Amino acid sequence: MIPAEAVVCVGDSGINGLATVRSLGRRGVRVHVVALQASAQIASLSRYCAGETRVADLDALCDALRALPVNPARRALLFIDNDKMMKALAPHAAELQRRFKVVEPLANAAQFMDKTFQLEAAADAGIALPRTWLPNSWEDIAAIAAQTGEPLLAKPSPARFPVGVNPSFKAIVAPSAGQLERQLRSLVSSPADVLVQEYIDGDDSCHYGSVCYRAEHCDACFILGTRKVRQTSLEAGIMAVGLVVDAPEVRRMTLRLVERLDYRGVIHVEYKRSPRDGKYYFIEWNARPPYFHSIGGKAAFDGAYFAWCDHVAPEKLDSVELRHDSGHYWINLHEDLRRLVNSPLLALRPSTWLPYLQAKEWAVFALDDPKPWLRSMQQLAAWSWQLLGRAERLRTT
Q1: CATH class of 6-111
Q2: Which of 9, 123, 183, 345 is the most exposed place for a label (fewest CB within 10 A)?
Q3: Do residues 8 and 85 touch, judged by C-beta distance below 8 A?
Q4: Using one digit for the tens of pLDDT, what is the confidence trace for 46-71?
Q5: What percent of the chain lies above the pLDDT cut of 70?
Q6: Which of 3.40.50.10190, 3.40.50.2300, 3.30.470.20, 3.40.50.720 is the CATH number of 209-362?
């Protein structure tokens, strides 16, 4: 086998990895995919995937990377598209950096995933934060009631969950500390497993973000603003429909943050704009591309290609000109249908369907690369049958 020029580690839905494979493959870069057998594996179905390796679990991931042939004179770029794989590979960062040009900040993964570190860094960069608590006991949660009367949001703390162990929830919102405690007692064994914040009111459209690439080998930093149009759940869902937006304040905050961190590579920073005071509040960041990073395709933002140029031909970054006003949408059809099933009244609003009639980037569909879309349609059909089956069982009981 000819050594690949780029290796993409793919987990979960595979949408993130698919965007990277397509970005590089369309430019003639040979891409090899390493994917978990239990994942959707749509990235390895791409016509732009030159080879694939499937691993049984995260414990086998590093061995699979060690087994890949390498060209010492031209090390392949290594992309990691999800937090689970970042955690699994972080202890092997030094070895992997000798074998590959590692794009994500693997050696600092534990620190960058730590919510306390994120909040402190955002505060140092002058970004507004919701009031936050890191409880160690149930008494600590009860005591929050004396400090605020606002609704509260609780999220799992990634540092408390080992590799391969998923939290039982993504986020919950409660109107008071007492009700939050009652909900958490059925979800976590210890309050130390969560981070609690004042809940910032606002619907899906109040969730803003930035996708940023800061180069390692030249003085280049590219930042694109995004906004969620719909997410899978109001409190803390993933993007189902998104939009590229011209948000200068979001770009300025992100620039201050990456400069404070001296961050290199792709980072996704999430904010929420409060309808009450108009401020953008820091929520969190991902020290890797977000799964919707193909949203930048029509706005000249392409993190995977930027990384390739950065490590191979930095001078090519001089000609990049982002289109902050491109105004195009990004649609994950499967996740949008999930949201509409859970919120059926949305389907009756004409504005719900506007993104489908505008300039857009599909999460999976591409005319030049149909196989991943066909696989995703099979998954969508299976989900639809399960949904119909549940509805029939409810009707007959």
Answers
A1: alpha beta
A2: 345
A3: no
A4: 999 999 999 999 999 999 999 998 88
A5: 95
A6: 3.30.470.20
| Number of Cβ atoms within 10 Å of the Cβ of 259 | 12
Q: Rounded to whole angstroms, how far apart are CA atoms 13 and 40?
A: 5
Mean pLDDT of 30-52: 91
Q: Which of 73, 71, 21 shows the shortest CA–CA distance to 43?
A: 21
DSSP of 327-395, one letter per residue? --EEE-HHHHHHHHHHSGGGGG-GGGGHHHHSSEEESS--TT--HHHHHHHHHHHHHHHHHHHHHHHHH
CB atoms within 10 A of CB 152: 24
d(CA 9, CA 264): 19
Cβ neighbors of 149 (< 8 A, separation 6 or more) are 176
365 vs 369: CA distance, rounded Å: 8
Residue 290 dihedral angles phi and psi, to the nearest 5°: -70, 160
Structure-token pair, residue 316:
């090519």
Alpha-helical segments (H) within 125-176: 138-143
What architecture is domain 131-198?
Answer: 2-Layer Sandwich (3.30)
User: Reduced to 3 states, what is the DSSP secondary structure of residue 99?
Assistant: helix
Query: Which sequence spans correspond to the domains of the chain?
Result: 6-111, 131-198, 209-362
Q: Dump pLDDT digits (tens) for 192-207.
A: 888 899 999 899 999 9
Mean pLDDT of 97-119: 93
Task: Please state, in angstroms and rounded to a whole number, the distance separating the CA atoms of residues 194 and 323.
Answer: 38
**Backbone φ and ψ of 36, nearest 5°:** -70, 140
Would you report the helix, strand and coil content of the chain in percent, each value rounded to 5?
Answer: 45, 20, 35
Lowest mean pLDDT among 63-67, 158-162, 245-249, 298-302: 158-162
Other Cβ atoms closer than 10 A to 159? 17
Cβ–Cβ under 8 Å, residues 310 and 215:
yes
212-221: per-residue pLDDT in tens?
Answer: 999 999 999 9
> Helix, strand or coil for residue 94?
helix
Whole-number pLDDT of residue 158: 60
Average pLDDT over residues 14-37: 94
